[in-house]
Model the fold of this input.
Amino acid sequence: MRVGADAVARNGLYATKTRQADDQRTLAPFGRRSTCVVERRDYGPYRVLTVADPDGPRPDPGQFYMLTAAERWGGGEDERPFLPRAFSVMRTGDDTLAFLFDDVGPGTKRLMELAPGEEILILGPLGIGFSPPREERRPVLVGGGVGIAPLVIWGDHLGGAETLLGFRDAAHAEGAALIPGARVATDDGSVGHHGFVTELLDLDDHIEIYACGPPPMLEAIARLGVPAQLAMESGMACGFGACFGCVVATADGYVRLCVDGPVIRT
Done:
């Protein structure tokens, strides 16, 4: 779930009254479970790790997991332990889960180092995911950078949908291969449209946007006045509402993204 919420939520742009009911979410088994990496693939600078999860429930698209490397999960001279990291599930198999990573710090770097056969600890699925389009609207998926992850599984669930993806440059745009047929925009114009991915939107009164990406992108989508479901992120320590580390402001008041989101409906 690699989307910053700090900036996008500060203006209270997001409503939560129509969010999915608690009893409709897929619940995680108690406690974290040990499993192992079964496959590792690279898409430009991004890395996809597939992990075994034969005993866990199948997640809803848009839900997330707290991930921890079983070995060397810490930093500094005293190897002080890192907090778990929250990641949207990108894709599922019969008994596997796939996650998308970008090297943005020591925690993600350590997870990206994991090779097939190495142990990883997972907790999930957690949170509230995507819901079907309201009023039979046409779904449009908009992703930015590593935020494309939850859109991959949602597109699989929908059986395909119009998809618009934005990246920094050609190297990062290799991640578009995860959603064949997607239209691409890049900041430097090296691939596809030169500019913001939101400039590719063809707005009409019968679409619903599903988005995950950088804060300015989410804020721009929230201001369009079109029904949208935004997968957001804030710092998390627990993933199940105990630490209040992921509280953000919405039009309906403060919410904990790990239990009231991460998908917020506008």
